[in-house]
Design a protein that fits this description.
The structure is a homodimer. Chain A folds into two domains: about 1-170, 3-Layer(aba) Sandwich (Rossmann fold), CATH 3.40.50.720; about 175-280, 6-phosphogluconate dehydrogenase C-terminal fold (Orthogonal Bundle). In chain A, about 55% of the residues lie in helices and about 15% in strands. Chain A has eleven helices and eight strands. In chain A, strands 3-2-1-4-5-6-7-8 form an eight-stranded mixed beta sheet, with helices on both faces. In chain A, strand 1 (about 1-5), helix 1 and strand 2 (about 25-30) form a beta-alpha-beta unit. The longest helix of chain A has 26 residues, at about 170-195. Chain A is globular and about 65 Å long. The interface between A and B is large, with 92 and 92 residues.
Amino acid sequence: MKVFIIGLGLIGGSLAKSLRKSAFADEILGFDKAPENLSYCIENHIIDRSVEILTGAQEADIIILATPVDGIIELMPLLLNQLQDQVVVDMGSTKRAIVELAAKHPKGKNFVAAHPMAGIENSGPAASFEQLFTDKVAIICNPEQNDRMPLNLAKLLFKSLNMKLIFMDANEHDRDLAYLSHLSHILSFSLALTAYNVEDKERNIFNLAGGGFASTVRLAGSSAAMWNPVFLQNKANMLEALELYISNLELFKMHIQNEDKLGLNQLMEKSNAIYKIINQSL
Amino acid sequence: MKVFIIGLGLIGGSLAKSLRKSAFADEILGFDKAPENLSYCIENHIIDRSVEILTGAQEADIIILATPVDGIIELMPLLLNQLQDQVVVDMGSTKRAIVELAAKHPKGKNFVAAHPMAGIENSGPAASFEQLFTDKVAIICNPEQNDRMPLNLAKLLFKSLNMKLIFMDANEHDRDLAYLSHLSHILSFSLALTAYNVEDKERNIFNLAGGGFASTVRLAGSSAAMWNPVFLQNKANMLEALELYISNLELFKMHIQNEDKLGLNQLMEKSNAIYKIINQSL
Protein backbone atom coordinates (compact mmCIF):
# COMPACT_ATOMS: atom_id res chain seq x y z
CA MET A 1 0.00 0.00 0.00
CA LYS A 2 1.27 3.46 -0.95
CA VAL A 3 0.46 5.90 1.87
CA PHE A 4 0.54 9.70 1.51
CA ILE A 5 0.65 11.67 4.77
CA ILE A 6 -0.19 15.37 4.60
CA GLY A 7 1.02 17.15 7.73
CA LEU A 8 4.24 15.81 9.23
CA GLY A 9 3.97 16.88 12.86
CA LEU A 10 3.66 14.72 15.97
CA ILE A 11 0.72 12.77 14.52
CA GLY A 12 1.93 12.53 10.91
CA GLY A 13 5.47 11.62 11.96
CA SER A 14 4.28 8.97 14.42
CA LEU A 15 1.91 7.54 11.80
CA ALA A 16 4.79 7.21 9.34
CA LYS A 17 7.00 5.47 11.91
CA SER A 18 4.28 3.09 13.03
CA LEU A 19 2.90 2.27 9.55
CA ARG A 20 6.40 1.59 8.23
CA LYS A 21 6.94 -0.92 11.02
CA SER A 22 3.62 -2.68 10.37
CA ALA A 23 2.76 -4.49 7.17
CA PHE A 24 0.36 -1.70 6.12
CA ALA A 25 2.66 0.62 4.18
CA ASP A 26 5.04 -0.31 1.36
CA GLU A 27 5.95 3.28 0.58
CA ILE A 28 5.32 6.49 2.50
CA LEU A 29 5.01 9.82 0.70
CA GLY A 30 4.82 13.02 2.69
CA PHE A 31 3.98 16.70 2.48
CA ASP A 32 4.24 19.54 4.98
CA LYS A 33 4.00 23.25 4.26
CA ALA A 34 6.88 23.84 6.68
CA PRO A 35 10.11 23.01 4.75
CA GLU A 36 11.95 22.20 8.02
CA ASN A 37 9.40 19.46 8.86
CA LEU A 38 9.76 17.98 5.39
CA SER A 39 13.55 17.97 5.42
CA TYR A 40 13.59 16.55 8.99
CA CYS A 41 11.37 13.65 7.86
CA ILE A 42 13.48 12.93 4.79
CA GLU A 43 16.82 13.15 6.61
CA ASN A 44 15.57 10.84 9.35
CA HIS A 45 13.97 8.39 6.88
CA ILE A 46 10.54 8.95 8.43
CA ILE A 47 9.08 9.28 4.92
CA ASP A 48 10.44 7.86 1.65
CA ARG A 49 9.75 10.87 -0.59
CA SER A 50 8.28 14.32 -0.44
CA VAL A 51 5.64 15.16 -3.08
CA GLU A 52 3.32 18.06 -3.85
CA ILE A 53 -0.22 17.60 -2.54
CA LEU A 54 -2.04 16.88 -5.80
CA THR A 55 0.76 14.67 -7.19
CA GLY A 56 0.87 12.60 -4.00
CA ALA A 57 -2.91 12.32 -3.94
CA GLN A 58 -2.95 10.89 -7.46
CA GLU A 59 -0.16 8.43 -6.75
CA ALA A 60 -1.16 7.09 -3.33
CA ASP A 61 -3.70 4.41 -2.39
CA ILE A 62 -4.57 6.10 0.88
CA ILE A 63 -4.20 9.78 1.77
CA ILE A 64 -4.00 10.71 5.44
CA LEU A 65 -4.80 14.27 6.48
CA ALA A 66 -2.79 14.89 9.66
CA THR A 67 -2.85 18.71 9.61
CA PRO A 68 -4.59 20.97 12.13
CA VAL A 69 -8.38 20.86 11.61
CA ASP A 70 -8.54 24.11 9.64
CA GLY A 71 -6.13 22.56 7.14
CA ILE A 72 -8.40 19.51 6.85
CA ILE A 73 -11.39 21.71 5.97
CA GLU A 74 -9.28 23.55 3.39
CA LEU A 75 -7.64 20.51 1.75
CA MET A 76 -10.41 17.90 1.81
CA PRO A 77 -12.45 19.34 -1.14
CA LEU A 78 -9.29 19.79 -3.24
CA LEU A 79 -8.36 16.16 -2.68
CA LEU A 80 -11.86 14.80 -3.26
CA ASN A 81 -12.22 16.86 -6.47
CA GLN A 82 -9.51 14.85 -8.20
CA LEU A 83 -10.01 11.52 -6.45
CA GLN A 84 -10.51 8.27 -8.39
CA ASP A 85 -11.00 5.22 -6.15
CA GLN A 86 -8.50 6.09 -3.45
CA VAL A 87 -9.37 6.74 0.19
CA VAL A 88 -8.88 9.87 2.28
CA VAL A 89 -8.79 9.60 6.09
CA ASP A 90 -8.41 12.54 8.47
CA MET A 91 -6.94 12.57 12.00
CA GLY A 92 -8.65 15.71 13.31
CA SER A 93 -9.79 16.36 16.90
CA THR A 94 -13.14 17.81 15.77
CA LYS A 95 -15.55 15.94 13.52
CA ARG A 96 -18.90 17.76 12.98
CA ALA A 97 -17.74 20.39 10.46
CA ILE A 98 -15.53 17.85 8.68
CA VAL A 99 -18.30 15.25 8.34
CA GLU A 100 -20.76 17.92 7.11
CA LEU A 101 -18.32 19.08 4.44
CA ALA A 102 -17.67 15.51 3.24
CA ALA A 103 -21.42 14.79 3.06
CA LYS A 104 -21.83 17.60 0.53
CA HIS A 105 -19.15 16.27 -1.85
CA PRO A 106 -19.92 13.70 -4.60
CA LYS A 107 -16.79 11.76 -3.60
CA GLY A 108 -17.55 12.13 0.15
CA LYS A 109 -18.16 8.38 0.52
CA ASN A 110 -14.41 7.88 0.04
CA PHE A 111 -13.62 10.19 2.97
CA VAL A 112 -13.40 8.54 6.41
CA ALA A 113 -13.67 10.92 9.38
CA ALA A 114 -11.44 9.63 12.14
CA HIS A 115 -9.87 10.75 15.41
CA PRO A 116 -7.05 8.74 16.97
CA MET A 117 -7.15 9.61 20.68
CA ALA A 118 -3.42 10.00 21.10
CA GLY A 119 -1.21 12.98 21.64
CA ILE A 120 1.32 14.57 23.92
CA GLU A 121 2.12 18.18 24.76
CA ASN A 122 5.15 18.28 22.44
CA SER A 123 4.64 18.86 18.74
CA GLY A 124 6.53 18.53 15.46
CA PRO A 125 8.10 15.48 13.78
CA ALA A 126 11.02 15.45 16.24
CA ALA A 127 8.51 14.60 19.01
CA SER A 128 6.99 11.72 17.00
CA PHE A 129 7.42 8.10 18.06
CA GLU A 130 6.34 4.71 16.82
CA GLN A 131 4.26 3.71 19.87
CA LEU A 132 2.12 6.88 20.10
CA PHE A 133 -1.06 5.09 19.00
CA THR A 134 -0.51 1.66 20.58
CA ASP A 135 -3.53 0.49 22.65
CA LYS A 136 -5.22 3.90 22.36
CA VAL A 137 -8.77 4.48 21.09
CA ALA A 138 -9.46 5.49 17.47
CA ILE A 139 -12.88 6.97 16.75
CA ILE A 140 -14.52 6.77 13.33
CA CYS A 141 -17.49 9.12 12.94
CA ASN A 142 -20.63 8.58 10.86
CA PRO A 143 -19.37 5.42 9.09
CA GLU A 144 -22.81 5.14 7.39
CA GLN A 145 -21.64 7.96 5.10
CA ASN A 146 -18.85 5.75 3.72
CA ASP A 147 -18.64 3.19 0.97
CA ARG A 148 -17.60 -0.24 2.18
CA MET A 149 -14.07 -0.28 0.77
CA PRO A 150 -12.88 3.07 2.18
CA LEU A 151 -14.31 2.17 5.59
CA ASN A 152 -12.63 -1.25 5.60
CA LEU A 153 -9.32 0.26 4.59
CA ALA A 154 -9.53 2.84 7.40
CA LYS A 155 -10.33 0.05 9.88
CA LEU A 156 -7.25 -1.85 8.71
CA LEU A 157 -5.17 1.30 9.09
CA PHE A 158 -6.14 1.71 12.77
CA LYS A 159 -5.80 -2.02 13.47
CA SER A 160 -2.29 -1.95 12.05
CA LEU A 161 -1.59 0.88 14.55
CA ASN A 162 -2.85 -1.47 17.33
CA MET A 163 -5.71 0.85 18.21
CA LYS A 164 -9.16 0.05 19.65
CA LEU A 165 -11.93 1.15 17.26
CA ILE A 166 -15.06 3.03 18.36
CA PHE A 167 -17.84 4.36 16.09
CA MET A 168 -19.68 7.55 16.98
CA ASP A 169 -21.94 10.26 15.69
CA ALA A 170 -19.90 13.38 14.87
CA ASN A 171 -22.10 15.70 16.97
CA GLU A 172 -21.81 13.45 20.02
CA HIS A 173 -18.07 13.19 19.41
CA ASP A 174 -17.59 16.94 19.46
CA ARG A 175 -19.71 17.45 22.58
CA ASP A 176 -18.04 14.63 24.55
CA LEU A 177 -14.56 15.65 23.48
CA ALA A 178 -15.21 19.27 24.48
CA TYR A 179 -15.51 18.01 28.08
CA LEU A 180 -13.05 15.11 27.96
CA SER A 181 -10.18 16.68 26.05
CA HIS A 182 -10.55 20.20 24.67
CA LEU A 183 -11.52 21.79 28.02
CA SER A 184 -8.45 20.24 29.72
CA HIS A 185 -6.21 22.16 27.34
CA ILE A 186 -7.81 25.54 28.08
CA LEU A 187 -7.61 24.75 31.79
CA SER A 188 -3.87 24.09 31.51
CA PHE A 189 -3.16 27.09 29.27
CA SER A 190 -5.01 29.27 31.81
CA LEU A 191 -3.13 27.76 34.76
CA ALA A 192 0.24 28.67 33.23
CA LEU A 193 -0.99 32.22 32.57
CA THR A 194 -2.23 32.45 36.18
CA ALA A 195 0.86 30.93 37.80
CA TYR A 196 2.99 33.55 36.06
CA ASN A 197 1.57 35.97 38.64
CA VAL A 198 4.01 34.58 41.24
CA GLU A 199 6.95 34.16 38.88
CA ASP A 200 10.07 35.70 40.38
CA LYS A 201 13.39 35.35 38.60
CA GLU A 202 15.34 36.06 41.81
CA ARG A 203 13.77 33.25 43.76
CA ASN A 204 13.11 30.80 40.90
CA ILE A 205 9.73 30.15 42.46
CA PHE A 206 8.63 27.43 40.04
CA ASN A 207 11.04 25.12 41.89
CA LEU A 208 8.31 24.95 44.53
CA ALA A 209 5.90 23.32 42.12
CA GLY A 210 5.17 19.71 42.96
CA GLY A 211 3.76 16.79 41.01
CA GLY A 212 0.19 18.07 41.21
CA PHE A 213 1.05 21.35 39.51
CA ALA A 214 3.22 19.53 36.97
CA SER A 215 0.40 17.29 35.83
CA THR A 216 -2.26 20.03 35.68
CA VAL A 217 -0.01 22.49 33.79
CA ARG A 218 1.52 19.98 31.34
CA LEU A 219 -0.90 20.68 28.47
CA ALA A 220 0.09 24.37 28.49
CA GLY A 221 2.93 23.21 26.26
CA SER A 222 0.45 22.18 23.54
CA SER A 223 0.59 23.57 20.00
CA ALA A 224 -1.39 26.79 19.44
CA ALA A 225 -1.65 26.03 15.71
CA MET A 226 -3.33 22.72 16.43
CA TRP A 227 -5.71 23.82 19.20
CA ASN A 228 -6.85 27.18 17.83
CA PRO A 229 -9.07 25.73 15.06
CA VAL A 230 -10.26 22.92 17.37
CA PHE A 231 -11.69 25.46 19.83
CA LEU A 232 -13.27 27.48 17.00
CA GLN A 233 -14.75 24.49 15.13
CA ASN A 234 -16.17 23.24 18.43
CA LYS A 235 -17.37 26.70 19.49
CA ALA A 236 -20.85 25.93 20.86
CA ASN A 237 -19.69 22.94 22.94
CA MET A 238 -16.60 24.77 24.18
CA LEU A 239 -18.69 27.71 25.36
CA GLU A 240 -21.08 25.34 27.16
CA ALA A 241 -18.24 23.40 28.82
CA LEU A 242 -16.34 26.56 29.79
CA GLU A 243 -19.46 28.12 31.28
CA LEU A 244 -20.16 25.06 33.40
CA TYR A 245 -16.52 24.80 34.42
CA ILE A 246 -16.37 28.44 35.49
CA SER A 247 -19.62 28.02 37.45
CA ASN A 248 -18.03 25.10 39.36
CA LEU A 249 -14.98 27.24 40.13
CA GLU A 250 -17.32 30.01 41.30
CA LEU A 251 -18.91 27.54 43.74
CA PHE A 252 -15.48 26.81 45.24
CA LYS A 253 -14.77 30.53 45.39
CA MET A 254 -18.08 31.28 47.11
CA HIS A 255 -17.60 28.57 49.74
CA ILE A 256 -14.04 29.76 50.45
CA GLN A 257 -15.28 33.37 50.66
CA ASN A 258 -18.01 32.32 53.13
CA GLU A 259 -15.66 29.91 54.95
CA ASP A 260 -18.35 27.29 54.32
CA LYS A 261 -16.56 24.11 55.32
CA LEU A 262 -19.61 21.92 54.75
CA GLY A 263 -20.25 23.35 51.28
CA LEU A 264 -16.60 22.82 50.31
CA ASN A 265 -16.70 19.28 51.62
CA GLN A 266 -19.81 18.40 49.65
CA LEU A 267 -18.22 19.69 46.43
CA MET A 268 -14.98 17.78 46.99
CA GLU A 269 -16.72 14.55 47.98
CA LYS A 270 -18.96 14.73 44.91
CA SER A 271 -15.82 15.28 42.83
CA ASN A 272 -14.08 12.33 44.56
CA ALA A 273 -17.05 10.10 43.68
CA ILE A 274 -17.01 11.19 40.02
CA TYR A 275 -13.25 10.70 39.89
CA LYS A 276 -13.72 7.09 41.06
CA ILE A 277 -16.04 6.48 38.09
CA ILE A 278 -13.64 8.24 35.70
CA ASN A 279 -10.63 6.40 37.09
CA GLN A 280 -12.19 3.02 36.29
CA SER A 281 -12.10 4.00 32.61
CA LEU A 282 -8.67 5.63 32.50
CA MET B 1 15.80 8.98 68.41
CA LYS B 2 12.24 8.26 69.54
CA VAL B 3 9.82 9.69 66.95
CA PHE B 4 6.10 10.25 67.57
CA ILE B 5 3.94 10.71 64.46
CA ILE B 6 0.47 12.18 64.95
CA GLY B 7 -1.70 11.53 61.90
CA LEU B 8 -1.04 8.24 60.11
CA GLY B 9 -2.27 8.96 56.61
CA LEU B 10 -0.28 9.09 53.36
CA ILE B 11 2.26 11.53 54.84
CA GLY B 12 2.52 10.05 58.34
CA GLY B 13 2.70 6.48 57.05
CA SER B 14 5.35 7.36 54.45
CA LEU B 15 7.35 9.25 57.11
CA ALA B 16 7.31 6.19 59.36
CA LYS B 17 8.46 3.89 56.56
CA SER B 18 11.21 6.23 55.42
CA LEU B 19 12.49 7.19 58.91
CA ARG B 20 12.59 3.54 59.99
CA LYS B 21 14.78 2.76 56.97
CA SER B 22 17.15 5.66 57.70
CA ALA B 23 19.28 5.98 60.79
CA PHE B 24 17.04 8.74 62.18
CA ALA B 25 14.46 6.75 64.14
CA ASP B 26 15.12 4.06 66.75
CA GLU B 27 11.48 3.74 67.72
CA ILE B 28 8.32 5.05 66.08
CA LEU B 29 5.22 5.83 68.12
CA GLY B 30 1.99 6.72 66.38
CA PHE B 31 -1.46 8.18 66.92
CA ASP B 32 -4.44 8.60 64.63
CA LYS B 33 -8.00 9.44 65.61
CA ALA B 34 -9.25 6.89 63.07
CA PRO B 35 -8.91 3.45 64.74
CA GLU B 36 -8.63 1.74 61.32
CA ASN B 37 -5.53 3.80 60.43
CA LEU B 38 -3.94 2.94 63.77
CA SER B 39 -4.62 -0.77 63.50
CA TYR B 40 -3.45 -0.81 59.86
CA CYS B 41 -0.14 0.76 60.91
CA ILE B 42 0.39 -1.64 63.78
CA GLU B 43 -0.55 -4.76 61.80
CA ASN B 44 1.79 -3.73 58.98
CA HIS B 45 4.62 -2.79 61.36
CA ILE B 46 4.60 0.78 60.06
CA ILE B 47 4.76 2.03 63.68
CA ASP B 48 6.09 0.23 66.73
CA ARG B 49 3.41 1.27 69.22
CA SER B 50 0.27 3.34 69.40
CA VAL B 51 0.08 5.89 72.24
CA GLU B 52 -2.30 8.62 73.34
CA ILE B 53 -1.30 12.11 72.21
CA LEU B 54 -0.04 13.54 75.52
CA THR B 55 1.69 10.32 76.57
CA GLY B 56 3.50 10.06 73.27
CA ALA B 57 4.46 13.72 73.38
CA GLN B 58 6.10 13.25 76.79
CA GLU B 59 7.96 10.14 75.75
CA ALA B 60 9.24 11.13 72.30
CA ASP B 61 12.28 13.20 71.32
CA ILE B 62 10.60 14.60 68.24
CA ILE B 63 6.87 14.94 67.59
CA ILE B 64 5.68 15.16 64.00
CA LEU B 65 2.27 16.66 63.27
CA ALA B 66 1.10 15.02 60.04
CA THR B 67 -2.63 15.75 60.37
CA PRO B 68 -4.70 18.04 58.14
CA VAL B 69 -3.85 21.68 58.87
CA ASP B 70 -6.92 22.29 61.08
CA GLY B 71 -5.67 19.47 63.31
CA ILE B 72 -2.24 21.15 63.49
CA ILE B 73 -3.80 24.40 64.71
CA GLU B 74 -5.83 22.47 67.29
CA LEU B 75 -3.06 20.21 68.61
CA MET B 76 0.01 22.47 68.52
CA PRO B 77 -0.85 24.52 71.68
CA LEU B 78 -1.75 21.34 73.63
CA LEU B 79 1.61 19.83 72.72
CA LEU B 80 3.62 22.99 73.40
CA ASN B 81 1.87 23.48 76.78
CA GLN B 82 3.46 20.34 78.20
CA LEU B 83 6.71 20.37 76.25
CA GLN B 84 10.11 20.16 77.96
CA ASP B 85 13.04 20.25 75.53
CA GLN B 86 11.56 18.13 72.76
CA VAL B 87 10.87 19.36 69.25
CA VAL B 88 7.58 19.59 67.37
CA VAL B 89 7.59 19.71 63.55
CA ASP B 90 4.51 20.02 61.37
CA MET B 91 3.99 18.84 57.77
CA GLY B 92 1.14 21.17 56.82
CA SER B 93 0.49 22.66 53.37
CA THR B 94 -0.27 26.12 54.79
CA LYS B 95 2.16 27.99 57.02
CA ARG B 96 1.03 31.56 57.89
CA ALA B 97 -1.63 30.71 60.52
CA ILE B 98 0.58 27.97 61.98
CA VAL B 99 3.65 30.22 62.30
CA GLU B 100 1.55 33.00 63.85
CA LEU B 101 0.14 30.62 66.44
CA ALA B 102 3.59 29.28 67.34
CA ALA B 103 4.98 32.81 67.68
CA LYS B 104 2.46 33.53 70.44
CA HIS B 105 3.41 30.50 72.55
CA PRO B 106 6.25 30.61 75.14
CA LYS B 107 7.52 27.27 73.81
CA GLY B 108 7.05 28.34 70.18
CA LYS B 109 10.82 28.31 69.56
CA ASN B 110 10.67 24.50 69.78
CA PHE B 111 8.09 24.35 66.98
CA VAL B 112 9.46 24.08 63.43
CA ALA B 113 6.99 24.98 60.67
CA ALA B 114 7.69 22.75 57.69
CA HIS B 115 6.11 21.63 54.44
CA PRO B 116 7.48 18.63 52.58
CA MET B 117 6.41 19.15 48.94
CA ALA B 118 5.34 15.57 48.35
CA GLY B 119 1.97 13.97 47.89
CA ILE B 120 -0.18 11.94 45.57
CA GLU B 121 -3.92 11.87 44.95
CA ASN B 122 -4.43 8.75 47.08
CA SER B 123 -4.69 9.07 50.85
CA GLY B 124 -4.50 6.92 53.97
CA PRO B 125 -1.68 4.73 55.33
CA ALA B 126 -2.35 2.01 52.71
CA ALA B 127 -1.22 4.53 50.04
CA SER B 128 2.01 5.37 51.93
CA PHE B 129 5.41 4.40 50.59
CA GLU B 130 9.03 4.75 51.65
CA GLN B 131 10.19 6.85 48.67
CA LEU B 132 7.44 9.51 48.78
CA PHE B 133 9.84 12.24 49.94
CA THR B 134 13.02 11.22 48.10
CA ASP B 135 14.59 14.11 46.12
CA LYS B 136 11.57 16.35 46.75
CA VAL B 137 11.71 19.86 48.26
CA ALA B 138 11.09 20.45 51.98
CA ILE B 139 10.27 24.02 53.01
CA ILE B 140 10.99 25.36 56.48
CA CYS B 141 9.24 28.64 57.22
CA ASN B 142 10.46 31.50 59.44
CA PRO B 143 13.45 29.58 60.89
CA GLU B 144 14.45 32.77 62.75
CA GLN B 145 11.60 31.98 65.18
CA ASN B 146 13.36 28.75 66.22
CA ASP B 147 16.00 27.91 68.76
CA ARG B 148 19.09 26.36 67.23
CA MET B 149 18.59 22.79 68.45
CA PRO B 150 15.00 22.30 67.21
CA LEU B 151 15.93 23.79 63.84
CA ASN B 152 18.98 21.53 63.49
CA LEU B 153 16.95 18.48 64.42
CA ALA B 154 14.28 19.35 61.81
CA LYS B 155 17.02 19.81 59.19
CA LEU B 156 18.41 16.37 60.03
CA LEU B 157 14.91 14.91 59.77
CA PHE B 158 14.48 16.19 56.20
CA LYS B 159 18.01 15.25 55.20
CA SER B 160 17.40 11.72 56.42
CA LEU B 161 14.36 11.71 54.10
CA ASN B 162 16.71 12.73 51.23
CA MET B 163 14.90 16.01 50.69
CA LYS B 164 16.23 19.34 49.40
CA LEU B 165 15.78 22.10 52.02
CA ILE B 166 14.44 25.57 51.23
CA PHE B 167 13.78 28.38 53.74
CA MET B 168 10.92 30.81 53.20
CA ASP B 169 8.77 33.42 54.82
CA ALA B 170 5.38 31.92 55.75
CA ASN B 171 3.37 34.63 53.98
CA GLU B 172 5.33 34.15 50.76
CA HIS B 173 4.96 30.39 51.11
CA ASP B 174 1.17 30.60 51.33
CA ARG B 175 0.88 32.98 48.38
CA ASP B 176 3.22 31.00 46.12
CA LEU B 177 1.64 27.69 47.05
CA ALA B 178 -1.86 29.03 46.36
CA TYR B 179 -0.78 29.38 42.71
CA LEU B 180 1.63 26.43 42.48
CA SER B 181 -0.32 23.76 44.32
CA HIS B 182 -3.62 24.65 45.97
CA LEU B 183 -5.22 26.11 42.81
CA SER B 184 -4.35 22.96 40.83
CA HIS B 185 -6.50 20.93 43.20
CA ILE B 186 -9.57 23.17 42.80
CA LEU B 187 -9.07 23.09 39.05
CA SER B 188 -9.07 19.27 39.05
CA PHE B 189 -12.02 18.95 41.45
CA SER B 190 -13.98 21.33 39.19
CA LEU B 191 -13.00 19.44 36.03
CA ALA B 192 -14.42 16.18 37.42
CA LEU B 193 -17.64 17.97 38.41
CA THR B 194 -17.87 19.50 34.90
CA ALA B 195 -17.03 16.31 32.98
CA TYR B 196 -19.89 14.55 34.78
CA ASN B 197 -22.16 16.56 32.48
CA VAL B 198 -21.40 14.13 29.64
CA GLU B 199 -21.36 10.98 31.76
CA ASP B 200 -23.52 8.31 30.17
CA LYS B 201 -23.67 4.85 31.71
CA GLU B 202 -24.91 3.31 28.45
CA ARG B 203 -22.00 4.51 26.39
CA ASN B 204 -19.30 4.49 29.10
CA ILE B 205 -18.15 7.82 27.75
CA PHE B 206 -15.13 8.22 30.04
CA ASN B 207 -13.40 5.61 27.87
CA LEU B 208 -12.92 8.43 25.40
CA ALA B 209 -10.74 10.35 27.82
CA GLY B 210 -7.11 10.47 26.78
CA GLY B 211 -3.87 11.21 28.59
CA GLY B 212 -4.50 14.96 28.70
CA PHE B 213 -7.76 14.57 30.58
CA ALA B 214 -6.23 11.92 32.85
CA SER B 215 -3.44 14.21 34.00
CA THR B 216 -5.64 17.28 34.50
CA VAL B 217 -8.34 15.38 36.44
CA ARG B 218 -6.01 13.25 38.61
CA LEU B 219 -6.07 15.54 41.65
CA ALA B 220 -9.88 15.21 41.82
CA GLY B 221 -9.12 12.06 43.80
CA SER B 222 -7.48 14.11 46.59
CA SER B 223 -8.65 13.97 50.19
CA ALA B 224 -11.42 16.45 51.10
CA ALA B 225 -10.40 16.31 54.78
CA MET B 226 -6.88 17.41 53.91
CA TRP B 227 -7.72 20.15 51.38
CA ASN B 228 -10.72 21.76 53.05
CA PRO B 229 -8.73 23.48 55.84
CA VAL B 230 -5.89 24.33 53.42
CA PHE B 231 -8.28 26.35 51.23
CA LEU B 232 -9.81 28.06 54.29
CA GLN B 233 -6.48 28.85 56.02
CA ASN B 234 -5.20 30.24 52.72
CA LYS B 235 -8.44 32.11 52.01
CA ALA B 236 -7.14 35.49 50.78
CA ASN B 237 -4.55 33.97 48.44
CA MET B 238 -6.99 31.36 47.14
CA LEU B 239 -9.56 34.03 46.31
CA GLU B 240 -6.91 36.08 44.50
CA ALA B 241 -5.62 33.07 42.53
CA LEU B 242 -9.13 31.84 41.68
CA GLU B 243 -10.20 35.27 40.50
CA LEU B 244 -7.17 35.57 38.22
CA TYR B 245 -7.65 32.02 36.96
CA ILE B 246 -11.32 32.61 36.15
CA SER B 247 -10.43 35.86 34.37
CA ASN B 248 -7.97 33.93 32.16
CA LEU B 249 -10.67 31.37 31.37
CA GLU B 250 -13.05 34.24 30.54
CA LEU B 251 -10.47 35.54 28.03
CA PHE B 252 -10.46 32.16 26.27
CA LYS B 253 -14.27 32.13 26.36
CA MET B 254 -14.50 35.63 24.90
CA HIS B 255 -12.08 34.88 22.06
CA ILE B 256 -13.94 31.66 21.22
CA GLN B 257 -17.26 33.52 21.33
CA ASN B 258 -15.88 36.20 18.98
CA GLU B 259 -14.05 33.61 16.85
CA ASP B 260 -10.96 35.74 17.44
CA LYS B 261 -8.22 33.49 16.10
CA LEU B 262 -5.50 36.06 16.71
CA GLY B 263 -6.56 36.68 20.31
CA LEU B 264 -6.65 32.93 21.01
CA ASN B 265 -3.23 32.50 19.45
CA GLN B 266 -1.69 35.25 21.54
CA LEU B 267 -3.06 33.68 24.75
CA MET B 268 -1.79 30.21 23.86
CA GLU B 269 1.62 31.42 22.74
CA LYS B 270 2.03 33.41 25.95
CA SER B 271 1.06 30.28 27.87
CA ASN B 272 3.54 28.18 25.83
CA ALA B 273 6.31 30.64 26.73
CA ILE B 274 5.46 30.51 30.44
CA TYR B 275 5.28 26.73 30.29
CA LYS B 276 8.82 26.65 28.92
CA ILE B 277 10.03 28.58 31.97
CA ILE B 278 8.01 26.37 34.31
CA ASN B 279 9.18 23.20 32.60
CA GLN B 280 12.83 24.07 33.26
CA SER B 281 12.08 23.87 36.99
CA LEU B 282 9.85 20.78 37.00
